[in-house]
Amino acid sequence: MGHSQAAKAESRDRVLKIAARRIREEGLTRPGVAELMNEAGLTHGGFYKHFSSREDLMRQAAALALVDGETKMARAARRNREEPRTGLIDSYLSARHRDAPGTGCAVVTLGAAAGRGEAEMKEAYEKQVRSYLELISGTEDGEDSDEARADAMLTLSAMVGALLMSRAVADPELSDQLLRTVAARLKGAPVPS
């Protein structure tokens, strides 16, 4: 790859990473092309050298945001080798994760958009949900028991819902309580007071 092609690829990757972060923070409708290109240090006019449309950029950035989340969840599960599910719950339902949506799980941010979206967006979202279910159940797709899969579905749904609500409520105490209580219940621990 020549220098100009390498520079073009680097610029495209920078725009994608910025768009993926902004999607996690603001959803799919908010970030505009001009502001994304400006944040990447590029001109608005150069946008079409990298993407066919804003929708093309948003689709690719959403897919990147979802994959980034999978990497982080896998890392969180490895933190507690004896009980990976506990490590995952503790990391996911933390104030740190709640307070950093730009680097957090895109399953939370993109759920509603994927539900209303085209087949490609739904497929990318579904791929991540399936991957998370495998990670939580500790098995590969199709190899888990009905009970392990049901538990993984409940766990993932509770984690995503609790994180979403903890970000949405105005009361900081309630926000913290949502995270602590759901984490404790999912781990079978007593609910903290």
From TrEMBL:
This is TetR family transcriptional regulator. It comes from Streptomyces fagopyri. GO terms for molecular function: DNA binding. The keyword DNA-binding applies. Keywords: DNA-binding, Transcription, Transcription regulation. It comes from the Bacteria. Residues 9-69 form the HTH tetR-type domain. Residues 32-51 bind DNA. The keyword Transcription applies. Gene3D superfamilies: Homeodomain-like (1.10.10.60), Tetracycline Repressor, domain 2 (1.10.357.10). Signal peptide: none annotated. Pfam families: TetR_N.
